[in-house]
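Archive transcription. Copying these from loose printouts into the bound notebook so they stop getting lost. Printout 1 of 2:
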Amino acid sequence: MMLVALFCLLQVQSLFAQEIDILLKGGHVIDPKNKIDSKMDVAILDGKISQVATDIATKNAKKVIDVSGLFVAPGLIDMHVHVFIGNDLDAYIANGPTSVSPDGFTFRSGVTTVVDAGSSGWRNFRQFKEQTIDKAQTRVLALLNVVGTGMVGRYEEQDVEDMNPVMSAHMINKLYPDIIVGIKAAHYWGDFTQVDRAVETGNLAKVPVMVDFGEHDPPLSIESLFMQHLRPGDIFTHTFSYGPKQRETVVDENNRVKPFIFEAQKRGIIFDVGHGGGAFSWRQAVPAMKQGFKPDVISTDLHTQSMNGGMKSLDNVLSKFINMGMTIPDAISRSTWAPANVIKRPDLGHLSVGSEADVAVFNIRKGDFGFLDVRGTKLKGTQKLEVELTIRAGKVVWDLNGISASVWDVK
């Protein structure tokens, strides 16, 4: 009987001695959803977060990674990218060379989830899914373009007859509700027709609308856009763009944030950075930040025409806001839990126990740095976010300095 009791006790103890595949030890965890901003350990088992605690024992860990002095955050969500890469040389972004392959640009900047912002429409989304989404390690979600052919080119994006709310809503609700998280309206030269078609689609599919609004001559009123056409929860991207001949700006020529901008944000309009190759100006962002107007979401608008210019990567864009006075937890929140809420994916953007183990580990370098806007003007800064390690679904996918690796030693 004593032997049986001892055997049962050992079995019970083994149940509580939880195994760990990866233990991130000694880092400073920033998890906005769970209100964590302190030194804690993070344990991963079977691709999921299994523990977040102050001092997790190492004895049951298969791999211990020392992240002392580093920040540990949920894998970043880039809510505005273009990754429908293809071989149609006459196309712009949809199945064209301006889009990029996601895995080559995500993990090195701490990004584990991207949202393609309207590269495809209902006519070519399945091609996008087959070519990119199904093959990427990065989690790729999408906003469906209100135009059926997506972003083939500016001419095709003017086709009102191809803006079909019923077909778009069917593609979202009936076919791909777990992948398509919203609708995109962009690059329209006319009136509010495209925006209104997008909102009609959003109502049918019960998803948010993102609007790239700014190719009208003369410019259309963004106050009207925010207060009369968009709904709470809809997204205005390229918030800090400066091109007043076509796009009304959020900051006026006297460097003051227009009062209705604050009212729109209170109403629930989501302001997204969407840096891009031509849509981020210091003359908009700096005075806005000084006057207390912060973007709700920080994103890149990644594509071939932005990645080698002022934008570079999401960690670089986050560094810009940190150097404009945003706290590190605030910046991380706007690229994790905030976009997860905007796209109605509460399973993402946090380190809750049981969630998929998407993790970004980074340091903040101190020094003399320069950050560019799209017009080539420089903002000097003293801090720069640098991603050391990225984990996607429990696997190390980026390791800048080999902190997860064993040391090679010649004997």
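Printout 2 of 2:
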Amino acid sequence: MIQFIGGSTGTWRVHELKAITGESLAIVTHLQVIEKISQTYSGSWMLSGFSSNVRYAQKVEKEKLVTVQEGLGRPEATCAALIPIRKSAAWWNLAQDERRAIFEEQPHHTAIGLQYLPAIARKLYHCRDIGEPFDFLTWFEYAPEHATAFEDLVGKLRETEEWKYVDREIDIRLTRV
């Protein structure tokens, strides 16, 4: 389980917090990321999620991701983005194979992401099944010199068919304190 807590203290300074689609979150100055929940933290808002198995990716795609992707927490990766998203009921009403076709076979979501590895590290947290206001929390980390590449990555993903099903998305940009 992971918690992202927006408030006035934390290890990440918020530079921008904006709603792309749907309702925003309260504006905060800092973000605290808690991976081992052992004490209570307070803030203006808290988003929780959990790591899960890789969904929609086939074996070959998963192997490519594992081979190329760098881990989080690299010293040079002082920039980050937290992008919580919620997909519409229309998305969840589709059968799994229909979602897979939209996710991967048409826009090639994984192939787009692979173009930006290992410079941009990413971790996806699921939260739909635990009653959170979003379905996914996507955490990205990258070095400042890869900021333009990150913008390109996010832009390409937002142009895909899959993004037509996103009904709430917040884009939070950060730097390590």
